[in-house]
Amino acid sequence: DNWSKPLQNCDPLATIDGVLDIEKRSQLDVRWPQLKHSKDDGMNLQPLWKGEYKKHGTCCNNMYNEQAYYDLAMNLKDRFDLLKILSSQGITPGKSYIVQKVQDAIRTVTHQLPRLKCVEYPGLELSEIVICFEPKGKNVVSCRRPGTCFKNGKMGTILYR
Fold this sequence. Notes:
This protein has helices at about 20-30, 40-45, 45-55, 65-80, 80-90, 100-110, and strands at about 95-100, 115-120, 125-130, 130-135, 140, 150, 155, 155-160.
């Protein structure tokens, strides 16, 4: 999802099973919680995980089957714990920060430029941090497409909730 166009929903007809192994579900729930859903719905219906696999995983199913995709997601989360990275750089929830400070904090660990996505609420609020990888998911690369944390074409401050 880093080059000339977003790689999303590459196989809209794919059958998606979700996380089949109950122990793996518990492990994934700790690393990648489904915050918009109750714990029971998240674990049983798996709307977030299935949705992310459909959106992104179907674009790499020649390298990873669905179950391997979930394993990769957990491994990458363990490798780059964004909450810990931000905290270690003095970036804590409930405050606003210059976009560059957030980018630099992540870059201290990944050594590459992340993509930050924001939503308007009423200013800009950080909603997603993207770390880009080469296709096999081993090496971090700089994200080439811009994020959405700009107001009037300029980087300003963003709320980190």
